[in-house]
Amino acid sequence: MPKQVDHRERRETIARALWRVVEQRGVVHLSMREVAQEAGISLGQLQHYFGSREAMLSFAMDFASEQASLRVGQGLAKLGDRPHPRDVLRVMLTELLPLHADARATSRMSAAFVLEALHNENFHARARDGMVQGRALVEQLVRQAIADGHIGPDRDPVAETNLLLALTGFTTLIELNVIEPRDVLTAVDQHLDGLFTTDDRHTGGGRSDAASDECSRPGAA
Fold first, then answer.
1. How many folded domains does the chain comprise?
2. Cα(189)–Cα(196) distance, rounded to whole angstroms?
3. Nearest 5°: CA angle at 67, between 217 and 157?
4. Is there a domain that residue 201 lies in?
5. pTM for the predicted model, two decimal places
6. Domain-located, residue 13
7. Is residue 48 part of a domain?
8. What is the CATH number of the domain that holds 206?
9. Residue 64 lies in domain
10. Per-residue pLDDT tens for 129-151?
11. Nearest of 24, 25, 15 to residue 55 by alpha carbon
């Protein structure tokens, strides 16, 4: 009996090959032929799953987002029941930074997608919608933390949300070896310490150990 092909698995394999092309050679080499070669399949086989470069790139970006969400979910699960909002925000922020191999691959994929989105209306709408949803989630967490007294009532939730998301701008500095990952994590922790009230700061105990763990993962920058 012929072996059944798992089409979702084959698509994911192609998507990961696309990530590797972007990560190792850059977006300028992002052609269907290059991806097929990286995936170890023929161009015809790739076209069986993706009829166009745009369809292939869209799936690869969606898959990258899924993997990032999965990593965040796993990080949150380790925090246990009713995690402190400071710790939740830290997990969300650090998993968006290229601090280890998986995060670096999806981060570079996101950067490639944004470059494409600047000149593709369909990609622009998809990228913008995803970012708007992500930003809304962070703002919701900030507003709830203010309401619960974890963040001072004088803080502007909109401005604080924007400042938190600005921390993801460390990605470029990490990728170009301008700042060490450990220093980035220190900056993230110091910002969170300044955002949350003094009584709440003890909940982030052991952050130095956490930073060491993140920086020592296989493939960490």
1. 1
2. 11
3. 90
4. yes
5. 0.81
6. no
7. no
8. 1.10.357.10
9. 60-215
10. 999 999 999 999 999 999 999 99
11. 15
Q: What is the pLDDT of residues 163-211, one digit of tens each?
A: 999 999 999 999 999 999 999 999 999 999 999 976 655 444 434 344 4
Using alpha carbons, select from 213, 18, 178 the residue that is nearest to residue 99: 213
Contact 168, 93 (CB under 8 A): yes
The helices-and-strands tally (H runs, E runs) of the chain is 11, 0
The C-alpha atoms of residue 151 and residue 85 are separated, in whole angstroms, by 10
CB-CB contact of 107 with 97 (8 Å)? yes
Residue 10 lies in a domain: no
Which one-letter amino acid corresponds to residue 41?
A: I
Query: Partners of 151 in the beta sheet?
Result: 196
Please report where in the chains the tokens 């991806």 appear, as a residue.
35
Q: At what angle do helices 53-77 and 101-117 cross, to 10 degrees?
A: 140
Tokens of 8: 């979702």
Beta-bridge mates of residue 196: 151
Query: Measured between alpha carbons, how far is 206 from 11 in angstroms, rounded to an integer?
Result: 40
